[in-house]
Write a structure and sequence with these properties.
Structural class: alpha/beta
Number of strands: 6
Radius of gyration: 15 Å
Strand content: 15-25%
CATH class of the largest domain: Alpha Beta
Helix content: 40-55%
CATH architecture of the largest domain: 2-Layer Sandwich
Largest sheet: 3 strands, mixed
CATH superfamily of the largest domain: K homology (KH) domain
Length: 138
């Protein structure tokens, strides 16, 4: 999850902010995509009409990007992070978050090969919500 902020990445963040007119809260690689996290209420502006900004940035950077929205609520933050995967139910008890997926395929995508996606999601969430112990998909 750690991204080294080099001159190239700082330039990409600055360009992202200039094109989208939003502030980047964090930038990291998630599921092998460069992910920009924007402040609450700024996702629509960051994406642009018909995702125009996203497509423009992907063309300029020549790579797939993700834009997610930060949320102070841990459960909503997790849903934003794993979107567009659908969640039937999400709950938290004693630092353990349980996600109920709609079908086996979606659950498999949430977990990933050798639980890679799940552990990656946990490490990102723990940065903002240190009380998180584990994420379970059922």
């Amino acid at each position: 999850m750690n991204v080294k902020y080099d001159a190239n990445l700082i330039g990409q963040i600055n360009f992202f902010e200039k094109i989208t007119r939003t502030r980047v809260k964090e930038c990291f690689t998630f599921k092998e995509k460069l992910t920009f996290m924007v402040n609450p209420e700024q996702l629509g502006r960051a994406l642009g009409n018909n995702k125009m900004n996203l497509h423009k940035l992907e063309k300029v950077f020549n790579k797939s990007l993700r834009i997610i929205e930060y949320n102070d609520d841990m459960l909503q933050f997790i849903q934003n992070l794993i979107a567009p995967l659908r969640v039937v139910k999400i709950s938290e008890e004693n630092g353990v978050v349980t996600i109920v997926g709609p079908d086996t395929k979606t659950k498999g995508l949430m977990i990933g090969s050798k639980a890679k996606n799940l552990r990656e999601t946990e490490s990102i969430v723990q940065k903002y919500f240190p009380e998180l112990q584990e994420i379970k998909v059922v």
